[in-house]
Amino acid sequence: MNDYLQFLLWPFIACVVLVGIHVYFGLHVIKRGIIFVDLSLAQVAALGMTFSFLLGFELEGDVAYFFSLGSALLGGTIFTFTREIEGKVPQEAIIGIVYAVSTAAAILGVSHAPEGAEHIKHLLVGSILTVTPAMVLKTAITYTLVGAFHYLARDRFLALTLNHSHRPANARLWDFLFYATFAVVVTSSVKMCGVLLVFIFLVVPSVFAALITDSIARRLVWGWLFGLVGSALGLVLSFLLDTPTGATIVCAFGAMLLLFALVRRLR
User: Which 3-state string (H, E, C) describes the chain?
Assistant: First the structure.
């Protein structure tokens, strides 16, 4: 039993790190009504990783990371400058277009590569079971720096998200900084756990918390609790059933949210 727990320890710590920052960004995403921005940014980051893969660089190397980060920052820039067309075209349309084009470009890029199908699968569900302590620590430091920056500038970021009628001075700059820091987080997350798991960590706990309370602080707490329980459940089920870990965690989050919705409906 101790060997099993030791095997799952670092994947669970990785989930704790991922849940911590993604629930926070999920609150902003839900409030802004741009649910699929995370999925789109993650896919753009994955496209950058695909380019580095085609050029022969290691997926776990620094070059692949900077390819991925550069692509995600480009995506964040697009979303920053398309926010003001909201009155004419919903920004979700732009987000969907970026996602579809990035996905298609990645598929085209690896269509003639010998390991193309395996690469696409890796981008979707990642390989969280193989995380190393060094990778988790590096990611935790990155997320801590992003979290500290958002805490220090929380008045501006919350005003952008919650108060559309009183946007802060230099609103476009702060909006870009929101998407840029979001891109940094998503790039590190995709490298560790894949596009689908990143989306689930961002959206499902935040939706659960939004159904319970309107308080921002309480949403964070409820979202973190949901994410930690769902991660532990998914990891254990994956181990017991011998199923892909990322896909199992995604289904565990979905099942928990469905169960909560049914119980809430019956009360």
Answer: CHHHHHHHHHHHHHHHHHHHHHHHHHHHHHHHCCCCHHHHHHHHHHHHHHHHHHCCCCCCCHHHHHHHHHHHHHHHHHHHHHHHHCCCCCHHHHHHHHHHHHHHHHHHHHCCCCCHHHHHHHHHHCCHHHCCHHHHHHHHHHHHHHHHHHHHCHHHHHHHHHCCCCCCCCHHHHHHHHHHHHHHHHHHHHHHHCHHHHHHHHHHHHHHHHHHCCCHHHHHHHHHHHHHHHHHHHHHHHHHHCCCHHHHHHHHHHHHHHHHHHHHHHC
The lowest-confidence range among 90-104, 109-123, 202-216 is 109-123
Say what the pTM is: 0.82
Position 190, amino acid: V
98 with 75: CB under 8 angstroms?
yes
pLDDT for 264: 84
Span 138-184, pLDDT tens digits = 999 999 999 999 999 988 888 888 876 667 778 888 888 998 998 89
Show Cβ contacts of residue 44 under 8 Å, excluding neighbours closer than 6 positions: 71, 72, 74, 75, 98, 102
Position 181, amino acid = T
- Cβ atoms of residues 226 and 249 within 8 Å: no
In angstroms, the CA 69 to CA 156 distance is: 24
> What angle do helix axes 245-266 and 195-212 make, rounded to 10 degrees?
20
Do residues 80 and 175 lie in contact, with contact meaning Cβ atoms separated by under 8 Å?
A: yes
Name the residue with higher pLDDT: 10 or 167.
10
| CA gyration radius, the chain | 18
